[in-house]
Amino acid sequence: MFALLGLATQMHAQDDMLSTPLTIEAVVNGNITIDNKANGDIFYRIDNGDENTVAGKSKQTINLSSGQKIQFWGNNPRYYIKDYTNLKIKSQCYVYGNIMSLLSKDNFATMKTLTAENDSAFARLFQGNEEMMFHPSKKFLLPATTLSKGCYLGLFDKCKKGIKELPELPATKLAYLCYSKMFKDCDALVEIPSLPDAEMADGCYEEMFYGCDALVKAGSLPKSKPARLCYLGMFSNCKNLTVAPALPAMALADSCYMSMFSGCTSLTKAPELPATELAKGCYAMMFINCKGLTEAPVLPATKLALLCYYKMFLNCTSLTKAPELPATVLEGGCYENMFDGCISLIQAPELSATELASGCYFWMFQNCTALKVAPALPATTLASHCYTQMFYGCTSLVEAPDLPAMTLFDRCYDGMFAGCSSLIKAPVLPALKLESGCYSGMFSGCSSLTKAPELPAPKLESECYRIMFYNCSLINELTCLATDISAESCTSQWLFGVAETGTFHKAETMNDWVLNSDSGIPTGWTSVNVDTGVNDVKVDKKQLDGWTYTLGGQRATDSYKGVVIKDGHKVVVP
Fold this sequence. Notes:
Elements: H1 2-18, E1 22-26, E2 30-36, E3 42-46, E4 52-54, E5 58-64, E6 69-74, E7 86-89, E8 93-98, E9 132-134, E10 140-141, E11 191-192, E12 217-218, E13 477-480, E14 502-506, E15 525-529, E16 548-550, E17 562-566, E18 569-573
Parallel strand pairs: 8-9, 8-10, 11-12, 13-14, 14-15
Antiparallel strand pairs: 1-6, 1-8, 2-5, 2-7, 3-4, 3-6, 16-17, 17-18
Protein backbone atom coordinates (compact mmCIF):
# COMPACT_ATOMS: atom_id res chain seq x y z
CA MET A 1 0.00 0.00 0.00
CA PHE A 2 2.74 2.45 1.02
CA ALA A 3 4.75 1.55 -2.09
CA LEU A 4 1.76 2.36 -4.30
CA LEU A 5 1.23 5.65 -2.53
CA GLY A 6 4.91 6.52 -3.03
CA LEU A 7 4.71 5.69 -6.72
CA ALA A 8 1.59 7.80 -7.13
CA THR A 9 3.34 10.73 -5.43
CA GLN A 10 6.34 10.40 -7.80
CA MET A 11 4.06 10.29 -10.86
CA HIS A 12 2.17 13.37 -9.65
CA ALA A 13 5.47 15.23 -9.14
CA GLN A 14 6.58 14.21 -12.62
CA ASP A 15 3.30 15.49 -14.12
CA ASP A 16 3.76 18.77 -12.25
CA MET A 17 7.21 19.21 -13.74
CA LEU A 18 5.96 18.38 -17.25
CA SER A 19 3.56 21.31 -16.84
CA THR A 20 6.27 23.57 -15.42
CA PRO A 21 7.94 25.67 -18.11
CA LEU A 22 11.70 25.96 -18.27
CA THR A 23 12.65 27.81 -15.09
CA ILE A 24 15.83 29.45 -13.83
CA GLU A 25 15.96 30.32 -10.13
CA ALA A 26 18.65 32.65 -8.79
CA VAL A 27 20.58 31.40 -5.77
CA VAL A 28 22.40 34.71 -5.32
CA ASN A 29 21.96 38.13 -6.88
CA GLY A 30 22.98 38.22 -10.49
CA ASN A 31 21.71 38.58 -14.04
CA ILE A 32 20.81 36.55 -17.09
CA THR A 33 21.40 37.55 -20.70
CA ILE A 34 18.96 36.10 -23.23
CA ASP A 35 20.64 36.08 -26.63
CA ASN A 36 17.81 35.03 -28.93
CA LYS A 37 19.09 33.94 -32.34
CA ALA A 38 15.80 32.31 -33.33
CA ASN A 39 13.42 33.87 -35.84
CA GLY A 40 10.57 34.11 -33.33
CA ASP A 41 10.08 35.63 -29.89
CA ILE A 42 10.93 34.21 -26.48
CA PHE A 43 8.46 35.03 -23.70
CA TYR A 44 9.28 35.15 -20.00
CA ARG A 45 7.80 35.98 -16.60
CA ILE A 46 9.59 36.80 -13.36
CA ASP A 47 7.90 35.37 -10.25
CA ASN A 48 4.57 34.97 -12.11
CA GLY A 49 4.56 38.62 -13.04
CA ASP A 50 3.71 40.19 -16.38
CA GLU A 51 4.72 38.49 -19.62
CA ASN A 52 7.72 40.04 -21.35
CA THR A 53 9.17 39.45 -24.79
CA VAL A 54 12.66 39.01 -26.21
CA ALA A 55 12.17 39.45 -29.93
CA GLY A 56 13.78 37.16 -32.45
CA LYS A 57 17.33 38.16 -33.40
CA SER A 58 17.70 40.32 -30.28
CA LYS A 59 19.39 40.26 -26.89
CA GLN A 60 18.24 41.30 -23.43
CA THR A 61 19.87 41.31 -19.95
CA ILE A 62 17.68 40.85 -16.85
CA ASN A 63 18.74 41.37 -13.22
CA LEU A 64 17.61 38.74 -10.71
CA SER A 65 17.71 38.84 -6.93
CA SER A 66 18.35 35.79 -4.79
CA GLY A 67 15.29 33.51 -4.84
CA GLN A 68 13.68 35.09 -7.92
CA LYS A 69 12.47 32.76 -10.66
CA ILE A 70 12.26 33.42 -14.39
CA GLN A 71 10.16 31.12 -16.63
CA PHE A 72 10.40 30.79 -20.41
CA TRP A 73 8.07 29.95 -23.29
CA GLY A 74 8.28 30.13 -27.04
CA ASN A 75 6.77 28.93 -30.31
CA ASN A 76 10.00 28.35 -32.19
CA PRO A 77 10.76 24.91 -33.65
CA ARG A 78 14.48 25.39 -32.92
CA TYR A 79 16.92 27.85 -31.44
CA TYR A 80 20.03 27.14 -33.53
CA ILE A 81 19.64 28.78 -36.90
CA LYS A 82 22.93 30.12 -38.27
CA ASP A 83 24.08 30.74 -34.71
CA TYR A 84 22.80 29.46 -31.37
CA THR A 85 20.50 31.00 -28.81
CA ASN A 86 22.15 31.16 -25.39
CA LEU A 87 20.91 31.83 -21.87
CA LYS A 88 24.01 33.27 -20.19
CA ILE A 89 23.88 33.33 -16.40
CA LYS A 90 26.52 35.24 -14.43
CA SER A 91 25.90 33.80 -10.95
CA GLN A 92 24.75 30.65 -9.13
CA CYS A 93 21.29 29.47 -10.17
CA TYR A 94 19.07 26.41 -10.46
CA VAL A 95 17.50 25.19 -13.68
CA TYR A 96 14.38 22.98 -13.72
CA GLY A 97 11.11 22.42 -15.53
CA ASN A 98 10.27 21.20 -19.02
CA ILE A 99 12.60 22.40 -21.77
CA MET A 100 9.86 21.78 -24.35
CA SER A 101 8.14 25.02 -23.23
CA LEU A 102 10.54 26.77 -25.62
CA LEU A 103 9.01 24.89 -28.58
CA SER A 104 5.31 25.21 -27.84
CA LYS A 105 3.87 27.73 -25.43
CA ASP A 106 0.52 25.94 -25.07
CA ASN A 107 1.21 22.23 -25.71
CA PHE A 108 4.66 21.61 -24.24
CA ALA A 109 3.43 19.42 -21.36
CA THR A 110 2.45 16.60 -23.76
CA MET A 111 5.26 16.88 -26.32
CA LYS A 112 7.41 13.73 -26.52
CA THR A 113 8.71 13.81 -30.12
CA LEU A 114 11.32 15.95 -31.84
CA THR A 115 11.06 15.91 -35.64
CA ALA A 116 13.29 17.10 -38.47
CA GLU A 117 11.73 20.52 -37.96
CA ASN A 118 13.40 20.51 -34.53
CA ASP A 119 16.94 19.75 -35.74
CA SER A 120 19.47 21.44 -33.40
CA ALA A 121 16.49 22.62 -31.34
CA PHE A 122 18.35 23.35 -28.07
CA ALA A 123 21.95 23.24 -29.26
CA ARG A 124 24.35 25.10 -26.89
CA LEU A 125 21.42 26.69 -25.05
CA PHE A 126 23.22 26.71 -21.67
CA GLN A 127 26.79 26.60 -22.95
CA GLY A 128 29.35 28.23 -20.67
CA ASN A 129 27.19 28.60 -17.55
CA GLU A 130 29.76 27.50 -15.01
CA GLU A 131 27.60 28.19 -11.92
CA MET A 132 24.36 26.60 -13.16
CA MET A 133 23.02 23.64 -11.13
CA PHE A 134 20.11 21.24 -11.24
CA HIS A 135 17.60 21.85 -8.42
CA PRO A 136 17.83 19.34 -5.55
CA SER A 137 14.09 18.52 -5.62
CA LYS A 138 12.62 19.98 -8.83
CA LYS A 139 13.60 18.08 -11.96
CA PHE A 140 14.95 19.42 -15.19
CA LEU A 141 13.12 17.49 -17.91
CA LEU A 142 14.15 16.42 -21.40
CA PRO A 143 10.98 14.42 -22.03
CA ALA A 144 11.36 13.62 -25.74
CA THR A 145 11.56 9.89 -26.47
CA THR A 146 12.25 10.47 -30.18
CA LEU A 147 15.09 12.89 -30.85
CA SER A 148 16.14 14.99 -33.82
CA LYS A 149 19.50 15.77 -35.38
CA GLY A 150 21.75 17.66 -32.98
CA CYS A 151 18.83 18.51 -30.69
CA TYR A 152 20.94 18.62 -27.49
CA LEU A 153 24.31 19.31 -29.10
CA GLY A 154 26.55 21.11 -26.58
CA LEU A 155 23.53 21.82 -24.36
CA PHE A 156 25.63 22.03 -21.15
CA ASP A 157 29.06 22.39 -22.75
CA LYS A 158 31.53 24.05 -20.32
CA CYS A 159 29.08 24.11 -17.41
CA LYS A 160 32.14 23.30 -15.38
CA LYS A 161 31.16 23.65 -11.71
CA GLY A 162 27.47 23.01 -11.15
CA ILE A 163 26.41 20.00 -13.23
CA LYS A 164 27.05 17.11 -10.83
CA GLU A 165 24.57 14.58 -12.16
CA LEU A 166 22.67 13.84 -15.36
CA PRO A 167 19.02 14.61 -15.96
CA GLU A 168 16.92 11.67 -17.07
CA LEU A 169 17.47 10.78 -20.73
CA PRO A 170 14.35 8.79 -21.65
CA ALA A 171 14.82 8.80 -25.44
CA THR A 172 14.54 5.39 -27.11
CA LYS A 173 15.08 6.62 -30.67
CA LEU A 174 18.23 8.65 -31.14
CA ALA A 175 19.32 10.85 -34.03
CA TYR A 176 22.50 12.08 -35.67
CA LEU A 177 24.65 13.97 -33.13
CA CYS A 178 21.67 14.24 -30.77
CA TYR A 179 23.82 14.11 -27.59
CA SER A 180 27.02 15.39 -29.19
CA LYS A 181 29.18 17.37 -26.70
CA MET A 182 26.13 17.60 -24.42
CA PHE A 183 28.18 17.56 -21.17
CA LYS A 184 31.58 18.40 -22.59
CA ASP A 185 33.94 19.87 -19.95
CA CYS A 186 31.42 19.45 -17.13
CA ASP A 187 34.14 19.06 -14.53
CA ALA A 188 31.82 18.37 -11.56
CA LEU A 189 30.42 15.11 -12.97
CA VAL A 190 31.85 12.22 -10.94
CA GLU A 191 29.68 9.29 -11.99
CA ILE A 192 27.10 8.77 -14.70
CA PRO A 193 24.29 6.21 -14.52
CA SER A 194 23.51 3.58 -17.11
CA LEU A 195 21.98 4.97 -20.28
CA PRO A 196 18.68 3.43 -21.44
CA ASP A 197 18.59 1.06 -24.36
CA ALA A 198 17.82 2.96 -27.52
CA GLU A 199 17.88 2.78 -31.30
CA MET A 200 21.29 4.18 -32.18
CA ALA A 201 22.14 6.79 -34.81
CA ASP A 202 25.32 8.04 -36.42
CA GLY A 203 27.44 10.06 -33.99
CA CYS A 204 24.67 10.07 -31.38
CA TYR A 205 27.04 10.13 -28.34
CA GLU A 206 29.93 11.93 -30.04
CA GLU A 207 32.14 13.58 -27.35
CA MET A 208 29.18 13.54 -24.97
CA PHE A 209 31.43 13.61 -21.86
CA TYR A 210 34.63 14.89 -23.46
CA GLY A 211 36.98 16.43 -20.90
CA CYS A 212 34.87 15.66 -17.81
CA ASP A 213 37.94 15.65 -15.61
CA ALA A 214 36.28 14.42 -12.40
CA LEU A 215 34.36 11.55 -14.02
CA VAL A 216 35.43 8.28 -12.37
CA LYS A 217 32.81 5.75 -13.32
CA ALA A 218 30.45 5.26 -16.25
CA GLY A 219 27.38 3.03 -16.18
CA SER A 220 26.31 0.65 -18.91
CA LEU A 221 25.57 1.80 -22.45
CA PRO A 222 22.71 0.72 -24.75
CA LYS A 223 22.74 -2.91 -25.81
CA SER A 224 21.62 -1.98 -29.31
CA LYS A 225 23.90 -2.53 -32.28
CA PRO A 226 26.27 0.45 -32.58
CA ALA A 227 25.86 2.96 -35.38
CA ARG A 228 28.51 4.72 -37.40
CA LEU A 229 30.66 6.99 -35.18
CA CYS A 230 28.10 6.58 -32.39
CA TYR A 231 30.63 6.61 -29.51
CA LEU A 232 33.21 8.83 -31.18
CA GLY A 233 35.29 10.44 -28.42
CA MET A 234 32.50 9.85 -25.88
CA PHE A 235 34.88 9.82 -22.88
CA SER A 236 37.90 11.45 -24.49
CA ASN A 237 40.18 13.23 -21.99
CA CYS A 238 38.22 12.05 -18.95
CA LYS A 239 41.50 11.96 -17.07
CA ASN A 240 40.16 10.32 -13.88
CA LEU A 241 37.97 7.65 -15.46
CA THR A 242 38.86 4.28 -13.92
CA VAL A 243 35.72 2.22 -14.65
CA ALA A 244 34.72 2.04 -18.30
CA PRO A 245 31.29 0.83 -19.41
CA ALA A 246 30.80 -2.65 -20.85
CA LEU A 247 30.77 -2.89 -24.66
CA PRO A 248 28.98 -6.17 -25.40
CA ALA A 249 28.20 -5.65 -29.09
CA MET A 250 29.23 -8.55 -31.32
CA ALA A 251 28.79 -6.71 -34.64
CA LEU A 252 30.24 -3.22 -35.05
CA ALA A 253 29.76 -0.24 -37.34
CA ASP A 254 32.21 2.07 -39.10
CA SER A 255 34.34 4.02 -36.58
CA CYS A 256 31.83 3.25 -33.82
CA TYR A 257 34.40 3.26 -30.97
CA MET A 258 36.82 5.72 -32.53
CA SER A 259 38.71 7.70 -29.84
CA MET A 260 36.13 6.59 -27.28
CA PHE A 261 38.62 6.60 -24.36
CA SER A 262 41.46 8.61 -25.86
CA GLY A 263 43.36 10.52 -23.18
CA CYS A 264 41.80 8.60 -20.26
CA THR A 265 45.12 8.52 -18.44
CA SER A 266 43.79 6.82 -15.27
CA LEU A 267 42.13 3.93 -17.08
CA THR A 268 44.11 0.80 -16.16
CA LYS A 269 41.74 -1.83 -17.52
CA ALA A 270 40.00 -1.75 -20.86
CA PRO A 271 36.46 -3.09 -21.28
CA GLU A 272 36.02 -6.47 -22.93
CA LEU A 273 35.71 -6.28 -26.72
CA PRO A 274 33.99 -9.52 -27.79
CA ALA A 275 32.99 -8.41 -31.30
CA THR A 276 33.85 -10.82 -34.10
CA GLU A 277 32.30 -8.75 -36.90
CA LEU A 278 34.41 -5.64 -37.31
CA ALA A 279 33.90 -2.56 -39.47
CA LYS A 280 36.02 0.18 -41.02
CA GLY A 281 37.95 2.05 -38.30
CA CYS A 282 35.80 0.51 -35.55
CA TYR A 283 38.55 0.61 -32.87
CA ALA A 284 40.58 3.42 -34.40
CA MET A 285 42.40 5.51 -31.74
CA MET A 286 40.15 3.97 -29.09
CA PHE A 287 42.74 4.09 -26.26
CA ILE A 288 45.17 6.63 -27.64
CA ASN A 289 47.27 8.21 -24.83
CA CYS A 290 45.76 5.95 -22.14
CA LYS A 291 49.04 6.03 -20.27
CA GLY A 292 47.78 3.98 -17.30
CA LEU A 293 46.52 1.04 -19.37
CA THR A 294 48.62 -2.01 -18.48
CA GLU A 295 46.77 -4.75 -20.32
CA ALA A 296 44.99 -4.83 -23.64
CA PRO A 297 41.62 -6.56 -24.07
CA VAL A 298 41.24 -9.81 -25.99
CA LEU A 299 40.62 -9.20 -29.70
CA PRO A 300 39.03 -12.40 -31.02
CA ALA A 301 38.10 -11.29 -34.54
CA THR A 302 39.59 -13.37 -37.34
CA LYS A 303 38.07 -11.28 -40.11
CA LEU A 304 39.39 -7.73 -40.12
CA ALA A 305 38.29 -4.48 -41.75
CA LEU A 306 39.98 -1.44 -43.24
CA LEU A 307 41.86 0.51 -40.51
CA CYS A 308 40.01 -1.47 -37.82
CA TYR A 309 42.83 -1.22 -35.22
CA TYR A 310 44.33 2.05 -36.48
CA LYS A 311 46.29 3.72 -33.62
CA MET A 312 44.22 1.72 -31.14
CA PHE A 313 46.88 1.80 -28.38
CA LEU A 314 49.00 4.72 -29.58
CA ASN A 315 51.17 6.04 -26.72
CA CYS A 316 49.80 3.59 -24.14
CA THR A 317 53.12 3.85 -22.35
CA SER A 318 52.33 1.33 -19.55
CA LEU A 319 51.13 -1.45 -21.84
CA THR A 320 53.49 -4.42 -21.47
CA LYS A 321 51.76 -7.14 -23.45
CA ALA A 322 49.85 -7.05 -26.70
CA PRO A 323 46.73 -9.17 -27.30
CA GLU A 324 46.71 -12.13 -29.66
CA LEU A 325 45.90 -11.22 -33.25
CA PRO A 326 44.55 -14.41 -34.84
CA ALA A 327 43.57 -13.06 -38.26
CA THR A 328 45.25 -14.75 -41.22
CA VAL A 329 43.82 -12.49 -43.94
CA LEU A 330 44.43 -8.77 -43.45
CA GLU A 331 42.83 -5.56 -44.72
CA GLY A 332 44.30 -2.20 -45.67
CA GLY A 333 45.89 -0.41 -42.70
CA CYS A 334 44.30 -2.84 -40.25
CA TYR A 335 47.22 -2.70 -37.75
CA GLU A 336 48.53 0.74 -38.75
CA ASN A 337 50.21 2.46 -35.74
CA MET A 338 48.41 0.00 -33.45
CA PHE A 339 51.13 -0.01 -30.74
CA ASP A 340 53.02 3.10 -31.81
CA GLY A 341 54.76 4.66 -28.79
CA CYS A 342 54.05 1.76 -26.39
CA ILE A 343 57.44 2.15 -24.74
CA SER A 344 56.84 -0.62 -22.14
CA LEU A 345 55.73 -3.27 -24.63
CA ILE A 346 58.17 -6.15 -24.32
CA GLN A 347 56.25 -8.85 -26.15
CA ALA A 348 54.73 -8.62 -29.60
CA PRO A 349 51.84 -10.84 -30.68
CA GLU A 350 52.25 -13.65 -33.18
CA LEU A 351 51.52 -12.43 -36.71
CA SER A 352 50.66 -15.50 -38.72
CA ALA A 353 48.89 -13.81 -41.62
CA THR A 354 50.10 -14.81 -45.06
CA GLU A 355 47.65 -12.73 -47.09
CA LEU A 356 48.64 -9.10 -46.58
CA ALA A 357 47.04 -5.82 -47.64
CA SER A 358 48.23 -2.29 -48.38
CA GLY A 359 49.73 -0.68 -45.28
CA CYS A 360 48.56 -3.52 -43.04
CA TYR A 361 51.54 -3.29 -40.61
CA PHE A 362 52.36 0.35 -41.33
CA TRP A 363 54.16 1.80 -38.22
CA MET A 364 52.65 -0.99 -36.09
CA PHE A 365 55.41 -1.03 -33.41
CA GLN A 366 56.97 2.36 -34.10
CA ASN A 367 58.98 3.62 -31.09
CA CYS A 368 58.29 0.52 -28.98
CA THR A 369 61.66 1.02 -27.33
CA ALA A 370 61.43 -2.01 -24.98
CA LEU A 371 60.61 -4.54 -27.72
CA LYS A 372 63.52 -6.96 -28.09
CA VAL A 373 62.07 -9.73 -30.26
CA ALA A 374 60.13 -9.23 -33.46
CA PRO A 375 57.40 -11.68 -34.43
CA ALA A 376 57.78 -14.04 -37.39
CA LEU A 377 56.51 -12.65 -40.69
CA PRO A 378 55.77 -15.66 -42.90
CA ALA A 379 54.13 -13.97 -45.89
CA THR A 380 55.81 -14.73 -49.21
CA THR A 381 53.74 -12.27 -51.26
CA LEU A 382 53.67 -8.71 -49.97
CA ALA A 383 51.54 -5.62 -50.53
CA SER A 384 52.21 -1.91 -50.99
CA HIS A 385 53.64 -0.33 -47.78
CA CYS A 386 52.80 -3.50 -45.85
CA TYR A 387 55.85 -3.31 -43.53
CA THR A 388 56.60 0.40 -43.88
CA GLN A 389 58.33 1.63 -40.69
CA MET A 390 56.87 -1.34 -38.82
CA PHE A 391 59.70 -1.33 -36.22
CA TYR A 392 60.86 2.25 -36.66
CA GLY A 393 62.70 3.42 -33.53
CA CYS A 394 62.58 0.05 -31.72
CA THR A 395 65.92 0.73 -30.09
CA SER A 396 66.05 -2.56 -28.12
CA LEU A 397 65.38 -4.83 -31.10
CA VAL A 398 68.45 -7.01 -31.66
CA GLU A 399 67.48 -9.38 -34.45
CA ALA A 400 65.18 -8.96 -37.42
CA PRO A 401 62.71 -11.71 -38.35
CA ASP A 402 63.15 -13.79 -41.50
CA LEU A 403 61.67 -12.13 -44.58
CA PRO A 404 61.08 -14.94 -47.09
CA ALA A 405 59.02 -12.93 -49.59
CA MET A 406 60.01 -13.19 -53.24
CA THR A 407 57.14 -11.04 -54.54
CA LEU A 408 57.49 -7.43 -53.46
CA PHE A 409 55.37 -4.29 -53.90
CA ASP A 410 56.00 -0.54 -53.79
CA ARG A 411 57.71 0.52 -50.54
CA CYS A 412 56.88 -2.78 -48.87
CA TYR A 413 59.95 -2.60 -46.54
CA ASP A 414 60.33 1.19 -46.55
CA GLY A 415 61.98 2.22 -43.24
CA MET A 416 61.05 -1.10 -41.64
CA PHE A 417 63.95 -1.12 -39.14
CA ALA A 418 64.96 2.54 -39.33
CA GLY A 419 66.36 3.77 -36.04
CA CYS A 420 66.74 0.27 -34.57
CA SER A 421 70.08 1.17 -33.04
CA SER A 422 70.60 -2.22 -31.31
CA LEU A 423 69.92 -4.35 -34.39
CA ILE A 424 72.95 -6.54 -35.05
CA LYS A 425 71.50 -9.08 -37.46
CA ALA A 426 69.67 -8.29 -40.67
CA PRO A 427 67.43 -10.75 -42.51
CA VAL A 428 68.20 -12.38 -45.84
CA LEU A 429 66.56 -10.50 -48.71
CA PRO A 430 66.11 -13.11 -51.44
CA ALA A 431 63.87 -11.23 -53.90
CA LEU A 432 65.30 -10.92 -57.42
CA LYS A 433 62.63 -8.56 -58.77
CA LEU A 434 62.37 -5.25 -56.97
CA GLU A 435 59.70 -2.52 -56.86
CA SER A 436 59.80 1.24 -56.40
CA GLY A 437 61.13 2.19 -52.96
CA CYS A 438 60.89 -1.40 -51.73
CA TYR A 439 63.98 -1.25 -49.43
CA SER A 440 64.16 2.53 -49.07
CA GLY A 441 65.55 3.45 -45.63
CA MET A 442 65.08 -0.11 -44.44
CA PHE A 443 68.10 -0.09 -42.07
CA SER A 444 68.66 3.65 -41.82
CA GLY A 445 70.22 4.52 -38.45
CA CYS A 446 70.95 0.89 -37.47
CA SER A 447 74.22 1.89 -35.88
CA SER A 448 74.97 -1.59 -34.40
CA LEU A 449 74.46 -3.49 -37.66
CA THR A 450 77.80 -4.98 -38.73
CA LYS A 451 76.80 -6.99 -41.77
CA ALA A 452 74.54 -5.99 -44.59
CA PRO A 453 72.36 -8.60 -46.32
CA GLU A 454 73.35 -9.67 -49.81
CA LEU A 455 71.41 -7.84 -52.51
CA PRO A 456 71.04 -10.29 -55.41
CA ALA A 457 68.58 -8.41 -57.65
CA PRO A 458 70.09 -7.67 -61.10
CA LYS A 459 67.86 -4.68 -61.96
CA LEU A 460 67.08 -1.83 -59.60
CA GLU A 461 63.91 0.28 -59.52
CA SER A 462 63.36 3.90 -58.56
CA GLU A 463 64.42 4.62 -54.95
CA CYS A 464 64.60 0.90 -54.19
CA TYR A 465 67.83 1.20 -52.12
CA ARG A 466 67.54 4.92 -51.29
CA ILE A 467 69.16 5.61 -47.84
CA MET A 468 68.95 1.88 -47.17
CA PHE A 469 72.05 1.79 -44.89
CA TYR A 470 72.13 5.49 -44.02
CA ASN A 471 74.35 6.05 -40.93
CA CYS A 472 74.99 2.33 -40.42
CA SER A 473 78.45 3.26 -39.21
CA LEU A 474 79.75 -0.30 -38.59
CA ILE A 475 78.98 -1.74 -41.99
CA ASN A 476 82.20 -2.30 -43.89
CA GLU A 477 81.16 -4.93 -46.40
CA LEU A 478 78.37 -5.17 -48.92
CA THR A 479 77.48 -7.49 -51.79
CA CYS A 480 75.30 -6.03 -54.53
CA LEU A 481 74.94 -8.00 -57.77
CA ALA A 482 72.97 -5.36 -59.67
CA THR A 483 73.92 -4.81 -63.29
CA ASP A 484 71.28 -2.18 -64.08
CA ILE A 485 71.21 0.85 -61.74
CA SER A 486 69.71 3.34 -64.17
CA ALA A 487 66.44 3.83 -62.24
CA GLU A 488 65.90 7.25 -60.66
CA SER A 489 67.47 7.68 -57.19
CA CYS A 490 67.74 3.92 -56.82
CA THR A 491 70.87 4.16 -54.64
CA SER A 492 70.59 7.77 -53.47
CA GLN A 493 72.77 8.10 -50.32
CA TRP A 494 72.30 4.42 -49.61
CA LEU A 495 75.76 4.12 -47.99
CA PHE A 496 75.99 7.54 -46.37
CA GLY A 497 77.75 7.31 -43.00
CA VAL A 498 78.99 3.71 -43.27
CA ALA A 499 82.51 2.65 -42.17
CA GLU A 500 85.38 4.69 -43.61
CA THR A 501 86.93 1.61 -45.21
CA GLY A 502 85.26 -1.49 -46.53
CA THR A 503 84.81 -3.95 -49.34
CA PHE A 504 82.14 -3.69 -52.01
CA HIS A 505 81.39 -6.97 -53.83
CA LYS A 506 79.89 -6.37 -57.24
CA ALA A 507 79.03 -8.32 -60.38
CA GLU A 508 82.08 -8.79 -62.59
CA THR A 509 80.29 -7.35 -65.63
CA MET A 510 79.08 -4.27 -63.78
CA ASN A 511 81.05 -1.10 -64.52
CA ASP A 512 78.46 1.61 -63.91
CA TRP A 513 79.08 2.17 -60.22
CA VAL A 514 80.21 5.68 -59.34
CA LEU A 515 83.19 5.53 -57.01
CA ASN A 516 83.92 7.70 -53.98
CA SER A 517 80.22 8.44 -53.58
CA ASP A 518 77.63 7.79 -50.88
CA SER A 519 75.26 6.95 -53.71
CA GLY A 520 77.64 4.44 -55.30
CA ILE A 521 80.78 2.88 -53.82
CA PRO A 522 81.92 4.95 -50.81
CA THR A 523 85.23 6.75 -50.54
CA GLY A 524 87.86 4.47 -48.99
CA TRP A 525 86.15 1.26 -50.04
CA THR A 526 87.65 -1.33 -52.37
CA SER A 527 85.45 -2.96 -54.96
CA VAL A 528 85.81 -6.67 -55.69
CA ASN A 529 84.33 -8.59 -58.58
CA VAL A 530 82.26 -11.43 -57.15
CA ASP A 531 83.12 -13.81 -60.00
CA THR A 532 86.93 -13.27 -60.18
CA GLY A 533 87.96 -11.65 -56.95
CA VAL A 534 90.03 -9.13 -58.98
CA ASN A 535 90.33 -5.77 -57.26
CA ASP A 536 89.11 -2.78 -59.20
CA VAL A 537 90.90 0.56 -59.06
CA LYS A 538 89.43 3.04 -56.54
CA VAL A 539 88.93 5.99 -58.89
CA ASP A 540 85.99 7.57 -60.59
CA LYS A 541 84.87 5.63 -63.68
CA LYS A 542 85.23 8.74 -65.82
CA GLN A 543 88.97 8.73 -65.11
CA LEU A 544 89.46 5.09 -66.18
CA ASP A 545 89.10 5.47 -69.94
CA GLY A 546 92.43 4.61 -71.61
CA TRP A 547 94.33 3.95 -68.39
CA THR A 548 95.93 0.64 -67.38
CA TYR A 549 96.55 -0.60 -63.82
CA THR A 550 98.27 -3.53 -62.19
CA LEU A 551 96.29 -5.87 -59.98
CA GLY A 552 97.84 -4.01 -57.06
CA GLY A 553 96.19 -0.78 -58.18
CA GLN A 554 99.32 0.94 -59.54
CA ARG A 555 99.28 2.62 -62.95
CA ALA A 556 101.07 0.30 -65.41
CA THR A 557 103.82 1.50 -67.72
CA ASP A 558 103.69 0.92 -71.48
CA SER A 559 106.23 -1.91 -71.13
CA TYR A 560 104.29 -3.73 -68.36
CA LYS A 561 103.39 -7.36 -69.22
CA GLY A 562 100.83 -9.62 -67.61
CA VAL A 563 97.31 -9.24 -66.18
CA VAL A 564 96.17 -5.63 -65.89
CA ILE A 565 92.94 -3.71 -65.35
CA LYS A 566 91.88 -1.54 -68.26
CA ASP A 567 88.58 0.37 -68.25
CA GLY A 568 87.52 -1.70 -65.26
CA HIS A 569 88.12 -5.07 -66.97
CA LYS A 570 90.79 -7.74 -66.57
CA VAL A 571 93.10 -7.81 -69.62
CA VAL A 572 96.19 -9.92 -70.37
CA VAL A 573 99.08 -7.90 -71.92
CA PRO A 574 101.48 -10.26 -73.82
